[in-house]
Design goal:
- The complex is a heterodimer of chains A (about 110) and B (about 110).
- Chain A has about 110 residues and is mostly beta strands.
- Helices cover about 0% and strands about 50% of the residues of chain A.
- In chain A, the strands form 2 sheets. In chain A, strands 2, 4, 5, 6, 9, 10 and 11 form a 7-stranded mixed sheet that branches. A 4-stranded antiparallel sheet of chain A has the order 1-3-8-7, with no helix packed on it.
- With about 110 residues, chain B is an all-beta fold.
- Helix content of chain B is about 0%, strand content about 60%.
- Chain B is built from no helices and 11 strands.
- In chain B, strands 2, 4, 5, 9, 10 and 11 form a 6-stranded mixed sheet that branches. Chain B has a 5-stranded antiparallel sheet with strand order 1-3-8-7-6, with no helix packed on it.
- Chain B is globular, with a radius of gyration of 14 Å.
- Classes of the chains: A mainly beta (about 110), B mainly beta (about 110).
Chain lengths: ~110, ~110
């Protein structure tokens, strides 16, 4: 296990299309977080899971966004009907409880 | 409201010089404080994690301090190198708080020039 893995690394999509990102956390990490980061800003919290349960969702997560972690392992983040404002880096992190969170390399989304 | 404020927003220094980055927080109750380094276009990488009882922690040329009474932390970089150019993000973990208990600062963008 080499850490948190995110796929794809880059995604370019046309406005109105749906996109899905995948995050594979470190094995046995029970917590998984999704963040959005725009240029020059710190990561903004979107949602987090403890095992398969989605415990919290940010107001940033509009109804076009949905995240799942069906078996408590990998997670997907789907954005429907993408808008140009969705262009950002989407970061995934995992942790064992509240011990240190490890981040993936992110998925850079560009909506044209 | 739980918040993490970092200063300065950006900093330019010459290679070989030292610098100190600041982090003030209002997160309560407090669990731990982390400093991350984020290279452009990459995910954040942990530098240090400090609990309530720790005042100082070093990781190579990086030294973090924590004053839990004043709710302040600093990250000191000694003998800077070009590879230190990155954003440095302070993250505070609270007990039972929201946002998955991780509150992020907006980061300090450090540029090290030759």
């Amino acid at each position: 296990d080499t850490g948190v893995s995110q796929n794809p690394r880059h995604k370019i999509t046309k406005r109105g299309q749906n996109v899905t990102f995948r995050c594979d956390p470190i094995s046995e990490h029970n917590r998984l977080y999704w963040y959005r980061q725009t240029l020059g800003q710190g990561p903004e919290f979107l949602t987090y899971f403890q095992n398969e349960a989605q415990l919290e969702k940010s107001r940033l997560l509009s109804d076009r966004f949905s995240a799942e972690r069906p078996k408590g392992s990998f997670s997907t983040l789907e954005i429907q009907r993408t808008e140009q404002g969705d262009s950002a880096m989407y970061l995934c992190a995992s942790s064992l409880g509240q011990i240190e969170a490890f981040f993936g390399q992110g998925t850079r989304l560009t909506v044209v | 409201k739980n918040q993490v404020e970092q200063s300065p927003q950006s900093l330019i220094i010459l290679e070989g010089k030292n610098c100190t980055l600041q982090c003030n927080y209002t997160v309560s109750p407090f669990s731990n404080l982390r400093w991350y380094k984020q290279d452009t276009g990459r995910g954040p990488v942990s530098l240090t994690i400090m609990t309530f009882s720790e005042n100082t922690k070093s990781n190579g040329r990086y030294t973090a301090t924590l004053d839990a009474d004043t709710k302040q932390s600093s990250l000191h970089i000694t003998a800077s190198q070009l590879s230190d150019s990155a954003s440095y993000i302070c993250v505070v973990s609270g007990d039972g708080g929201s946002q998955g208990n991780l509150i992020f600062g907006k980061g300090t963008k450090l540029s090290v020039k030759p």
